[in-house]
Specification:
- The protein is built from 9 helices and 48 strands.
- It is mainly β.
- Residues 1-5, 91-112 and 671-679 have low confidence and may be disordered.
């Protein structure tokens, strides 16, 4: 068995024919490294704004790199491990920081994140893998895309991603709800940060949220993914990557003002700490406030995040992070009946500004903090060890009065219900990985062995009660007396241990992916207050084990076409209990996916088409006014997703997507609803909040000459097809089309160096629409037009 360095040396000594078209230098180097079969490390800062004339003909690795780099002032230097590092030709003695190289190689390899086109991702394999060579559907939202589109939340950042419904609960910003491939699994089970699962509790109000200002990119993996991550949703997962320290000085401050009383300020400072550039820091802060589109509801947020990266040697690095967030006001989170939202009731329609609570009662506050680290050590030319860890802590207090249907068939009065919560969550998660890069004959193996452990404890104290009705069309607030029910208090625990193995095989132009994982999961629910059916201290415990796998195959043609086929599994233990307090069975998911990817040679443009078939068993559902869940059988989701990321010219970027999702209950368990004897069988019906068709298009053009030099203009359109408002599929939520726009200008062109201004408008035509309905009693108003102006200064 040859080591990676020995095999790379053999490759470097040989010559081969290359066909690389003229392109930005970063893209040309990426294409060369893939064709040559080498590992090449370079930062986006080195290649920014540099063009390459391409490469045609027969060359060795060293000759090809020299030709591509040309007169750029850069040169490629071989390392002891057999890989190559790009450095400045004038200052060869001053080596590039290993942390610069390492973070770039692991995060996006040679894929410059300038623009919208990332070329590599870790989300599907926990190693840096080219998107073109990944046998599963992966989308990436870059930092520039988030900025250009003015994303205010993580969910908004994914508005132009196929297969993702980002606003199932309308204009609320309290949680990042993301429905993927038809599965709406709330705001916990599919969000990850820096490779580790968000440890919020999906059965409570304790859901973590990260502000997009603190993120470098968002990666979206479609379909089941338990083989590397354990418990997860079958629809897919969203991986957030936070901003990391830079080894060149960077300082930015920004201010934002907008409609709905939005105003905020932020700062982002980074750079090296020592002369040797072994230690770097990053300090990011944000303060933001908005009145929201709903009456009597505000949002407030204060966040600070310090990060330090330490490069102990060329083989060992450590990044320490903290994230401290205080949300004293959490805005609005509620729904209204379909009768009055989707169509008129008694000749009137409920306003998109309607607030169904009580101004003197309603409130939501969240304090969350996390402390984490990412450690990496290269043992030798073959083995690299990594360990990621995060501790999370949160405190949530909620008082909310919300409506749940009309008092009589003809009245304008809404029934109202009060819920109160005082929650404390403590959790930690650790992931240990050992990667080995070896060759067996002509096949290259990237082996990954891992073991992860997570633990979560949530203490919840809940109160509830009845409140006087409210007129939905002429609300008169102040009748806020609460008829309290018996309180409840629980201690909820979760513990998961998982071991996994993965082998990524490159053999000629074939790419194989094999993975296997086994999990041990324990959940428990202990009541802290005596109840009618459960004495105080009664604990209900559920222990489960599960083995999941994944297999994929892809063939990479020389012309950039790559067909693939994959199979993957997921499972998710239910933290939910039925009306008797017994835990529900875990959900299980399986997916078969086939697709075709195309990346024109010499570019980072990527076209993807994928078809999928997902089966999920043991689904659970809950009526909003109940405190228990019900089994609702099985769901089958299948469909088609198309996506294109294009850099048409140096100035023009384009994104396009189309989604077809055909989802239905394939097996149902009749469920007794709130009305005794009302039993439904939903087999062959479609779940709510699952539109069949979605499409989007976004373009951005930057002028770089003439009178318009420095001006940037962007625009997009988003279409969401109809969905069903009830499980019986008797009423439709109409489709809607939204338009977005952005205008930016570099004020450095008129003498204000480092100053940039950007204006973003979402729902430009102020379309009034219902985003979706969870039932006929709960429909969610869509986000009205909002316009924000951001001024930033970089120095």
């Amino acid at each position: 068995m040859l080591s990676l360095a020995e095999e790379t040396a053999a490759v470097a000594a040989s010559t081969r024919a290359y066909t690389i078209a003229p392109a930005p230098l970063g893209e040309a180097l990426n294409q060369f490294a893939r064709q040559a079969g080498i590992t090449l490390s370079v930062t986006p800062q080195q290649t920014a704004g540099v063009q390459s004339a391409g490469l045609q003909g027969q060359y060795s690795v060293e000759q090809g790199l020299a030709m591509l780099l040309g007169a750029s002032g850069l040169q490629a230097v071989a390392t002891d491990s057999g890989s190559y590092v790009v450095r400045s030709a004038e200052t060869e003695a001053l080596s590039l920081s290993a942390t610069d190289i390492r973070s770039f190689t692991l995060g996006n390899a040679l894929g410059s994140t300038e623009g919208y086109n990332a070329s590599h991702s870790q989300i599907a394999t926990k190693t840096s893998t080219a998107l073109l060579e990944t046998s599963q559907s992966v989308s990436v939202v870059t930092r520039q895309q988030m900025d250009d589109q003015g994303a205010q939340t993580v969910a908004q950042a994914m508005r132009y991603t196929p297969g993702v419904l980002t606003n199932p609960y309308g204009a609320t910003h309290r949680y990042d709800y993301v429905a993927m491939r038809g599965f709406n699994d709330g705001a916990v089970d599919n969000i990850y940060l820096d490779g580790l699962k968000s440890m919020g509790d999906s059965g409570t109000f304790s859901t973590m949220q990260v502000d997009p200002y603190f993120l470098e990119r968002v990666d979206i993996l479609k379909g089941p993914s338990s083989v590397l991550y354990g418990r997860s949703s079958p629809g897919g997962l969203v991986a957030l990557t936070s901003k990391k320290p830079l080894y060149t000085p960077y300082h930015q401050i920004q201010a934002t003002v907008g409609t709905q009383g939005q105003r905020g300020v932020g700062f982002d400072f980074s750079g090296p700490v020592d002369d040797d550039k072994r230690i770097a820091y990053r300090l990011i802060g944000l303060a933001d406030k908005s009145d929201t589109q709903f009456d009597h509801a505000e949002e407030k947020r204060y966040v600070i995040s310090p990060t330090v990266s330490i490069d102990f040697s060329e083989d060992t690095s450590l990044t320490l992070q903290a994230y401290l967030q205080h949300d004293p006001e959490g805005g609005y989170h509620g729904g209204v009946p379909a009768d009055g939202a989707l169509h008129k009731r008694n000749g009137r329609r409920i306003s998109e500004h309607f607030f169904d609570g009580e101004p003197d009662v309603d409130g939501y506050s969240r304090d969350q903090k996390s402390f984490s680290y990412q450690f990496e050590h290269r043992i030798n030319d073959v083995f690299t060890a990594r360990q990621n860890f995060r501790y999370q802590d949160s405190k949530v207090n909620i008082d909310q009065i919300y409506s749940y249907g009309w008092t009589t068939p003809t009245s304008n009065q809404l029934n109202r219900y009060y819920t109160g919560g005082d929650e404390r969550l403590h959790a930690f998660i650790i992931d240990n990985m050992l990667q080995a890069d070896v060759f067996t004959g002509s096949a290259k193996h990237t082996l990954l062995l891992g073991a992860d452990y997570q633990r979560r404890k949530t203490v919840v104290d809940w109160t509830s009660g009845a409140v006087a009705p409210l007129d939905a069309f002429d609300p008169a607030y102040g009748n806020d007396a609460i008829d309290y029910y018996s309180p409840t208090s629980y201690l909820r625990r979760l513990e998961q241990t998982g071991v996994y193995a993965q082998d990524l095989i490159e053999w000629d132009q074939w790419r194989f992916s094999l993975g296997l994982r086994h999990d041990w999961v324990t959940t428990s629910d202990e009541n802290r207050i005596a109840e009618a059916a459960r004495p105080q201290g009664t604990e209900i415990e559920d222990k489960r084990t599960k083995t999941t796998g994944r297999a994929g195959v892809l063939y990479l043609f020389e012309n950039g076409i790559a067909p693939y086929l994959s199979y993957s599994q997921s499972f998710n233990p239910n933290s939910y209990s039925d009306s008797a307090g017994n835990p529900l069975a875990p959900t299980d998911g399986t997916q078969l996916e086939a697709g075709l990817k195309y990346q024109p040679p010499g570019t980072d443009n990527l076209f993807t088409a994928s078809v999928f078939h997902i089966e999920q068993e043991n689904l659970a559902s809950k009526l909003p006014q109940e405190n228990f869940y019900r089994p609702v059988g099985a769901v089958r989701s299948q469909g088609l997703e198309l996506e294109a990321h294009l850099q048409l010219t140096d100035n023009f970027k384009l994104l396009g997507s189309y989604t077809l999702t055909d989802i239905e209950y394939s097996k149902s368990m009749p469920s007794t609803l709130s009305t005794p004897g009302n039993v439904i069988d939903n087999k062959s019906n479609s779940p709510t909040q699952a539109p069949k068709h979605m499409a989007s298009l976004w373009g951005d053009y930057a002028f770089d000459s003439g009178a318009l030099d420095g001006l940037r203009v962007g625009g997009g359109v988003r279409y969401v097809g109809y969905s069903w408002a009830d499980a019986e599929n008797t009423m439709k939520v109409p489709s809607y089309t939204l338009f977005d726009a952005s205008v930016g200008y570099d004020l450095g062109k008129v003498g204000l160096k480092g100053v940039d201004v950007r204006v973003n408008a979402n729902n430009l035509t102020n379309e009034s629409y219902v985003a979706s309905c969870a039932s006929l009693s709960f429909c969610y108003m869509g986000e009205e037009r909002n316009v924000n102006a951001t001024v930033s200064y970089q120095f």
